[in-house]
Amino acid sequence: MNLVFDKVFAPHYGEAIDIAPNVKRITVNNPSPFTFHGTNSYLIGKNSLALIDPGPIDEAHKAVLLRAIGGRPVSHIFVSHTHRDHSPLASVLKDELGALVVAEGPHRPSRALHLGEVNLLDASGDTGFMPDIRVDDDALIEGDGWALRSIHTPGHTANHVVFALEGSGILFSADHVMAWATSIVAPPDGSMSDYMASLDRLLARQDRVFLPGHGGPVTRPKTFMRGLKAHRKMRERAVLERVKRGDRTIAEMVRVIYRETDPRLHGAAALSVLAHLEDLVARGLVQTEGNPAVDGIYW
Fold first, then answer.
1. pTM of the entire predicted model
2. What is the CATH number of the domain that holds 159?
3. Which of 33, 201, 228, 257 is spaced 20 to 30 A from 176 at the CA atom?
């Protein structure tokens, strides 16, 4: 199944854009190869509000959020995961707004670090984050005219969670499913086996549209997620093929598998290959001498 990305997106920096009844999107002006045009924050409600993914510490974005809130009460700040482009502003706004911060839990890796391993993603993690409410899977939190259901979706991070707006068919998919690109799954923060299982969880749902953490909406979620699964299986086959052809390092694999990818993303690509290798080793399809690592030689 072909995976077709949609990169048409106008961020409208400095504005709160109406995208559904009582749902506004505000995009942070923090574009990069990893954030696309920037991080999307969402305001939900009419008289009393919820905020999803407030974003990084950014005074201009904070000012736009407060202007869009317009003095209305904000009861909850929902955080999908603890990467620094999504969560740090929560700790600032909770004090100013008197809101409760809701998330799956604090930042943590998907697995324990191996002996001598360094977490290359430490700088991207909001390691000081601690929610007021650690939300369970399939929990429902209700506000004034809105209700959000949590669905735990580990994979991109161990604590990744998406939120469904009850009765609307809208799911805020954060970094798990985005229309413009595949999600980065990078150990030890991420886990490929967890990511694939989380895709299956969302495929079993009947959501009408996904509103992601970066870029525009996913308008045909089931079709797109089937494409994501097929894409990951294709990458898995490519990794196995490079092993069979004699590649002994991830760097060798990346040069071939990602030859048409922006070189600035090759570091992330190497971590994605590592995620596939860890999954393949766990399933007994590849054997290595020691634990796979980005800079290691395995067989």
1. 0.94
2. 3.60.15.10
3. 257
